[in-house]
Amino acid sequence: MTIGGRAVQGATSFEVRNPANGQVIGTAPNGSRDDLAAAVAAAQKAFTSWSQKSDDELAAACRAVTEKIGAHAEELARLLTLEQGKPLNGLGSRWELGGAAAWAGATAALSLPPRVLQDNAQGHVEIFRKPVGVVGSITPWNFPVLIAVWHVLPALRTGNTVVIKPSPYTPLATLRFVELLNEVLPEGVVNSVSCDDRTSNLGADMATDPIIRKIVFTGSCATGKKVMQSAASTMKRLTLELGGNDAGIVLPDADPKAIAEGLFWGAFLNNGQTCAAMKRLYVHASIHDDVCEHLAAFAKQVPMGDGMDEKNVLGPVQNRMQFDKVARLVADAKTKGQLLTGGEPGEGLFFPATIVAGLKNGDALVDEEQFGPALPIIRYTDVEDAIRAANDSENGLGGSVWSKDIEHARRIASRLECGSVWINKHGAIQPNAPFGGVKASGLGVEFAEEGLKEYTDAQVIFS
Ligand code: NAD
User: Active site at which residues (predicted)?
Assistant: First the structure.
């Protein structure tokens, strides 16, 4: 861990395993409540001077962080593959590190200058955005480095200091990332703590901590709700990026062959362990069989295996809990629909890309967030039914519409209850577009100026 600029070992540690082969690849500190208190105190102390930095100084610091990420991208990518399982290649860990540097650079270039609301004989009214203080960041195991950048960079850019706690499944790349940041930032500005959630839960402690002023949390809906409850007593600011059950709707005029690759990666990016992956696919009856055929054919030729082997573009499921969930949902789906490809658990944590047609809303693989390599296909005849079924979910993160007629697709997009809708692609986020969920998928947005504002409180000065 890095606390107040110093490396802290922790009294005990826990093992981190490579999901591709089960081997221990390292250990991480099992931090205590005292370690968390020290990290929060260090961040609070650093806030005094960090929050007084000029806008230019904060932007320059974020640029220095961006350079650090770029210079250590390959090292971090390798660590990420070893602990997360995603391949080095394809849309894997090198791609994640590319995104991390791109997002960091884009955040450095943002700013929230003061705005004059009134300037006349009656008075001068101006709005300023002020940092909130110590920000607690809690991250999941699917995109550990990229999500750390999404949390930490906007906090720094707006003059806050940070304590970050990675998932116990994937702590190592994040701990190293924070160590690297400390080479270019003053001590205490970014601190890390890690713990084995089975023996201590520093995430829960962060949510009730009286000094932490904001929690930015990315993870499951269930944990997000707990964070929201815990944060109420200290009136913390919250950004919650939670689970999704994104629907894709294929309209009758789409070209099944041309869209197969986009559909596949929309659903199977990071082995489906992606918040805004396509998790249900509604296909018009007139092209249903063709879409199934082309999608299954594409899925069958995607190489899966140990992520350190450059030829693979899909790796294992990250952990046993998630693997068992996918296996349970697929076993149930096979009794209700037609298996198009995959379906049988492989060696260790490898689960082949699985597609099951003939399902409907109410089936577990359609209703629950699988967060893994299994896609249900639902046939529809009336697009109104498809829209209703897509919206019949407590989640509302993303969605997509697939059609040659972009205007028609846009009209359908506007009726989907979710924060982002893509046309003829799925899940393509970018740093200049706010991203967040509606309904149970979260609170607030990340990225762009809208995301930056969430790390600030407004102050209006009347003179
Ligand atoms: P999770 O909720 O199990 O864990 C997330 C983090 O919360 C971990 O660091 C964990 O240690 C910590 N935590 C556990 N209990 C806690 C508590 N009581 N209080 C505070 N923190 C606690 O989620 P996960 O399994 O790591 O991630 C998968 C989920 O994350 C999926 O549902 C996925 O859709 C979602 N996700 C959402 C986005 C998004 O941007 N909307 C992005 C990535 C992942």
Answer: 241
| Whether the domain at 2-242+438-462 and the domain at 246-423 fall into the same CATH topology | no
- Pull the structure tokens for residue 196: 């084995």
- 114-132 pLDDT tens trace: 999 999 999 999 999 999 9
Ligand 1 center from residue 104 Cα (angstroms): 22
Provide the residue ranges of all domains of the chain, joining segments of one domain with +: 2-242+438-462, 246-423
**CB of 192 closer than 6 A to ligand 1?**
no
Q: Which class would CATH give 2-242+438-462?
A: alpha beta
Residue 28, ligand 1, Cβ within 6 A: no
Query: Which ligand 1 atom sits closest to the C-alpha of 195?
Result: 11
Residue 195 tokens, joined:
């713990």
Specify the residue for token string 């944590």: 349
Q: Residue 11: enclosing H or E segment and its boundaries? A: none
**HSE-CB of 180 using CA atoms within 13 angstroms:** 22
- Give me the catalytic one of 83, 241, 369, 446: 241
Residue nearest to atom 43 of ligand 1 (CA): 275
What CATH code is assigned to 246-423? 3.40.309.10
Give me the helix-helix angle, 73-84 and 93-108, nearest 10°.
130
Q: Give the tens place of pLDDT for each residue, 279-319.
A: 999 999 999 999 999 999 999 999 999 999 999 999 999 99
Ligand 1 in reach of 290 Cβ (< 6 A): no
- Residue with structure tokens 């070893």? 82
Q: In 10 A of CB 53, how many CB atoms?
A: 17
